Amino acid sequence: MDSNQTQWASKAWHLLSLLRAQSPLIQCITNFVSMDIVANTLLSAGASPAMIHAVQELPDFTPRAAALCVNVGTLTPSWLPAMKAAAQICNTLRTPWVLDPVAASASSFRFEACQELLRLRPTVVRGNASEIIALASAEPHANASKGADSVHDSMDAVEAAKLLAQTSGAVVAVSGATDIVTDGNRVVGALNGVAMMQKITATGCSVTALIAAFVAVDKSHALDATVSALAVFGVAGELGMKMAKGPASLRMHLIDALYGLDEAALNSHVNITSLC
Ligand SMILES: Nc1ncnc2c1ncn2[C@@H]1O[C@H](COP(=O)(O)OP(=O)(O)O)[C@@H](O)[C@H]1O
Ligand SMILES: Cc1ncsc1CCOP(=O)(O)O
Ligand SMILES: [Mg+2]
Known about the structure:
- The chain is α/β, with parallel strands linked by helices.
- The protein is built from eleven helices and nine strands.
- It has helices spanning about 5-20, 35-45, 60, 80-95, 110-120, 130-135, 160-170, 205-215, 220-240, 245-260, 265-270; strands spanning about 25-30, 50, 65-70, 95-100, 125-130, 170-175, 180, 185-190, 270-275.
- It has a nine-stranded mixed β-sheet with strand order 2-1-3-4-5-6-7-8-9, sandwiched between helices.
- A hairpin with a 4-residue loop joins strand 7 and strand 8.
- Adenosine-5'-diphosphate (ADP) binds near residues 128, 194 and 195.
- 4-methyl-5-hydroxyethylthiazole phosphate binds near residues 34, 74 and 201.
């Protein structure tokens, strides 16, 4: 293993250990499809999830969270004010918050909502390639995605991700066969994971929430925390796949593998490379 890989594996292990020790409270304003698997992903990694989205609760609750995850997957007009208010509280308190722009180009309403959220300066944006390409453009394109699923490879979105990072100020992550993470300058690729993860709904939502948990324990290094979270989730997918028979059992084994992940497994599986 080259020394760079050793350093990334050791960073990922350090952050996962911190997460397990600190068990940060992660507020999730997420879609109905994802609530269960997102909460279980966070719990198995060692974080403490809470799916709280009533606008009336935010002044009391959001200041207690170590990070916020906002996911527009089942967006309705009544949810958007809570997403924006929670993001604003986080900004005031310098609490990191992460945006998942599910199906960003599905409609003008959703695209505009994502743009409004982007203007509230998320710490990290994580989407699939089609979502990041859509967000980096000036307007939604009807053929830019197939709902929540990507029609592009992650490598097709490198330039869009860099542009989005530069214009939004966020670290931008594009998931796929190679997970790409950029701050607009550095570009890092995480090659962990298995293709079957795409066949489980809300694995993308889950890794976005895991990114929020990693950023919560390393606020000043959002890019490194994001790369580490993606690699850790991908390694859990690889280990889970050894026991899985299909998507349903992979869902279970991935969560078990994430819970049981140790330093030796990360040292031998983490596959991260600098792309520029
Ligand atoms: N072809 C692939 N090979 C390996 N891992 C993948 C592949 N496609 C997606 N993943 C992994 O699956 C998870 C969800 O990513 P993705 O399917 O791109 O998100 P979304 O569900 O938002 O479309 C990520 O952890 C990603 O690394
Ligand atoms: C299928 C679906 N429809 C609205 S939200 C959602 C879940 C999307 O999850 P992910 O982006 O992680 O695949
Ligand atoms: Mg998604």
